[in-house]
Amino acid sequence: MSLTNSQYNELMRSYEEKQRQASYIAEKHKEEVYEKVPALRSIDDTIAAESTSYLKRMLKGVAEEGALHEKIEELKKQKISLIREAGYSPEYLEPSYSCKDCSDTGYIGNKRCHCFIQASIDLVYSQTGIKDILKEENFDTFKTEYYSDTATDPERKMTSRDIAVEARDYCKEYCRNFDREGGNILITGQTGTGKTFLSHCIAKDLLDAGHSVLYFTSYQLFEVFEKNTFEKDPDFMESYDNIFTSDLIIIDDLGTEMANGFTNSRLFLCLNERLLSGRSTVISTNLSVRDIAEEYSERTFSRIFGNYKLLKLYGEDIRIKKKLLNA
Q1: Are strands 152-153 and 158-159 parallel, antiparallel or unpaired?
Q2: Are strands 107-108 and 111-112 parallel, antiparallel or unpaired?
């Protein structure tokens, strides 16, 4: 999974804390058992002393590994016998890791453990702020029957439903090929035609696949830029960095912000930097192509229409239709 530096560091800190906690509990257990069975401390001290002595002799070239191994094995058997006689299992003295496969390191050799991959998915899910929404809005719940099979887009000569099916299928394919191809999408259309829903579908699929996805409304995106530029607000610095490093960012409802020179320049910075670094962006907007050209700078317009797949949804406000059908 591709994580931002801050996300990776946050996960590794959590693993370090798990290891510390497991070691602390194991040490408390050891002291408890030592108090009940004092001979155990003596056996552990002997094992440690013999191992140290062996290393010193090995450095001098006079170590006899077989004899030491037999002695330590005999001491371990005595230790296990005493632990069981006291009513404990031998595992009681060992650190109890939440993941026994990696001992709470997050890695098995040089490969990320399955627990790390799942923790990464859970983390990026929580940081999108739309985890609960994605349970309701995803490809499985994308219902094309809400779109009209008679209303026809005069430009493309396709029905509203056919356009929605085509857009949904494209987005599914986009997610399937994301690792190899990535890419950028601009979703346009009137209010209520499913633009935000479709962007949520993309977010859900890619988050489930373990990609870092950040979701911003247009207002939220420019608030991060504003706080980082004018106030140096530390609470927004991480979000600012993630804008440029996440696998995918979704900008919802572009055009609802208070447009000015600052927002125009920051939008260009965001889109251009992500294009240069090969990272993907999905934008949804009520603005038409002409509106975008008039609202934003020529450079921004050029970046969008030279590098984004345009998906234009068509039809009536399906949110009203949903309410009527589910009433």
Answers
A1: antiparallel
A2: antiparallel
Provide the token pair at 83: 């632990």
Detail the DSSP E strand segments found in the chain: 107-108, 111-112, 152-153, 158-159, 185-188, 213-217, 248-254, 280-285, 309-312
| The predicted structure's pLDDT at residue 56 | 75
Q: Average pLDDT of each block of 10 consecutive residues along the chain (327 residues)?
A: 76 95 93 91 86 75 67 86 91 90 94 85 73 90 92 93 97 96 96 94 91 88 88 72 89 91 94 96 94 90 95 88 67
Residues 6+ apart with CB under 8 A from 188: 195, 284, 285, 286, 287, 288, 289, 310, 311, 312, 313
For the chain, which domains are there?
A: 17-98 (no CATH), 129-326 (3.40.50.300)
Count of beta carbons in the 10 Å neighbourhood of residue 206: 22
Tokens of 252: 């919802």
- Report strand pairing: 280-285 vs 185-188: parallel
Torsion on CA atoms 5, 6, 12, 16, rounded to nearest 10? 140
Match 């994308």 to its residue by tokens. Answer: 142
| Cβ pair 147, 166 in contact under 8 A | no
pTM value? 0.70
pLDDT of residue 65: 61
